């Protein structure tokens, strides 16, 4: 049984791409208000796990629940940040316009942003320290600022569970430290961060918890125990993920 504080519950989650296994029998609980890194070699199923939680990948078997509700009943609580290469950073749009997109799912057809919506947008921009660049095109921002813009959009949406795919990829040391500070602040506020991370050293430094995958679950729990030599060797051993 999972504790009442578990916000995400995955039971026997199995996903396949055609006949090829992507995730096999994943059972794991993510505590509310935790920072958890999803770890594993390329092809281990890190991104697939995030997409399954979002409901974007059909399950061959198993069940995913958010609190006591199925994901489709709680989507406003979930926010997703894809890998940086999946975003068109040259698209002509301002920081504020991107953050405003976070309010669109809650609007009824043909309704424009109201005062309460604009207040949420303003709070998100302020929290992520984007006030001085709110009218700037996103293509003119640094990599760290761009990541903060999309985190602000997630805050404006009203999310408290953040699913992030390689959020540190391509960031310099200063931007990495800024993002780390944001995540630790969110943890204190009871927000939940689940992030796919390829850098094991960074995972140890930033995330108190880890979930180590090799298509199946290798280990979960406190990050030091998860990233033991035995577990790393099991997950990353040569040929383990060859089809």
Protein model, in words:
- The chain is α/β, with parallel strands linked by helices.
- The mean pLDDT is 89.
- The two termini are 34 Å apart.
- 32% of the residues lie in helices and 26% in strands.
- The chain is built from 8 helices and 9 strands.
- The longest helix has 16 residues, at 173-188.
- The strands form 2 sheets. The protein has a 6-stranded mixed sheet with strand order 5-6-7-3-8-9, with helices on both faces. Strands 2-1-4 form a 3-stranded antiparallel sheet, covered by helices on one side.
Give the helix proportion (percent range). 25-40%
Strand content: 25-35%
Mean pLDDT figure: 89
Report the structural category.
alpha/beta
Q: Which segments are poorly predicted (pLDDT under 50) over 5 or more consecutive residues?
A: none
Helix count equals: 8
Roughly how many Å is the radius of gyration? 18 Å
The largest sheet is:
6 strands, mixed
Major sheet strand order: 5-6-7-3-8-9
Order of helices and strands: EEEHEEHHHEHEHEEHH
Number of strands: 9
Distance between the termini: 34 Å
Shape: globular
